[in-house]
């Protein structure tokens, strides 16, 4: 069975969604819920922090991540784009949004 790899954008959005669903979350929980390798997670968390989409807090229990207001804005915009694309792909029988293959005339 052939697996379809996620793009970097899809991974980043998945991480943002996981962190947004929690009040604060440890990096190992993000890794499992977003289905990432440790190396992918470390790089992606660093990128998201540098873009100020997430923040990191150190507590006595460990390191936790929270989504920022900018991160929530990005998720909101992405959800709107995703729902628009899904609606347009439902109208067009020649498109297959799930595998990102769209016929172009």
- The CATH class name reads Mainly Alpha
Q: Helix coverage percent of residues?
A: 40-55%
Class from secondary-structure proportions: alpha+beta
Strand percentage lies at 15-25%
Estimated radius of gyration: 16 Å
User: What's the β-strand tally?
Assistant: 5
Structure description:
With 105 residues, this protein is an alpha+beta fold. The chain has one domain (8-94): Arc Repressor Mutant, subunit A. Helices cover 54% and strands 17% of the residues. The chain has helices spanning 8-21, 27-33, 38-50, 69-91; strands spanning 25-26, 54-59, 62-67, 95-96, 101-102. Strands 1-3-2 form a 3-stranded antiparallel β-sheet. α1 (8-21) crosses α4. The chain starts with 7 loop residues before the first helix and ends with a strand.
């Amino acid at each position: 069975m052939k697996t379809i790899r996620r793009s970097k954008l899809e991974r980043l959005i998945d991480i943002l969604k996981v962190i947004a669903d929690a009040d604060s979350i440890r990096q190992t929980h993000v890794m499992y819920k977003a289905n990432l390798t440790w190396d992918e997670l470390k790089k992606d968390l660093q990128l998201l922090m540098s873009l100020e989409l997430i923040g990191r807090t150190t507590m006595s229990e460990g390191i936790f991540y929270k989504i920022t207001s900018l991160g929530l804005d990005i998720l909101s915009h992405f959800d709107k784009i995703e729902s628009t694309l899904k609606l347009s792909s439902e109208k067009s029988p020649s498109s297959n949004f799930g595998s990102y293959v769209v016929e172009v005339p």
